[in-house]
Structure prediction request, 207 residues.
Amino acid sequence: MIYDITRRVTVNTAVFPGDTPYHPDLKLRITSGASVNLVTVTTTLHIGTHVDAYFHYTPDGAFVDAMPLEAYIGRAHVVTTTKPDGELTLEDLPPLPARVERLLIHSPISDLPESIFPETFPYPSAALIAALAARSCRLIGVDSPSVDRADSADLPGHHAIRQHGMVNIENLVLTGVPDGEYELIALPLKLADACASPVRAVLRTLT
Ligand SMILES: [Zn+2]
Prediction:
């Protein structure tokens, strides 16, 4: 069984305040005599469910085409927190196994409609990220729009993730996904000079 944990991207999908929304432009139309329909899209790369490249917050960080692919595929542990906003620590989560290769945090944010940008949301503390790194974690996924407070200037969560050799996924939708172990597949596009990529994120149940 497959769970699609991806936000739908529409013209109404909320983006960070000031960022570029999704805009599909039908440049050629079959109904106007063209042989094909041809759509050009203008959008922030941080649209809907996406991964951040290290370049997003580090001047000499990797572009998204050079991010480590193996981090985005494999065993993932889904946990639920009821905390609606603020910093998340280990104490806000159910007990974790000794090894957690990938952690996806399901919060109340998953239930918001795609058109709403939440002013506050939960995000992992640098201490939680360090505790996950100690459990061999490669990826942290959140349903929040960021792994830092929305108005954070120094982005401690983002930087802790890079310093530990981890990667992040933002804006997941984990509604209806029971806590537990899955296989995650969420590959970024091979975009040169890009700071992020939308992904189609899915969880496969383990057999
Ligand atoms: Zn982002």
